[in-house]
Amino acid sequence: MERRRSSIGRGDFFGEMSLLLGSPPTADVTAKTPLRCLVLAGPNLQAFLDKHPTVMYRMLVAMARRLRTANQHPG
């Protein structure tokens, strides 16, 4: 049974954990509408982030938000 966990929008990203940790992906992504993606192979991620520190910062902030959300207790 498929379960919707979250949605992403323009400027968002996915799959970064697999690239950063060198591990297989843990989720599937399904697009509701046509989209354009920038695809980075694992070995190219560090060079890309070094060249684009703003993207690296946005990724860090997004990951911090996800971690905070995952650690919040219900109620």
Separation of the first and last Cα atoms: 27 Å
Q: Beta fraction of the residues?
A: under 5%
Order of helices and strands: HHH
What's the rounded overall pLDDT mean?
86
Radius of gyration: 14 Å
Overview of the molecule:
This protein is mostly helical and 75 residues long. Helices cover 47% and strands 0% of the residues. The longest helix is centred in the C-terminal third of the chain and has 19 residues.
In short:
With about 80 residues, this protein is an all-alpha fold. The chain contains three helices and no strands. The two termini are about 25 Å apart.
Write the SSE topology.
Blueprint: H1 16-21, H2 42-51, H3 53-71
Q: What are the main properties of this structure?
A:
75 residues; mainly alpha; 47% helix
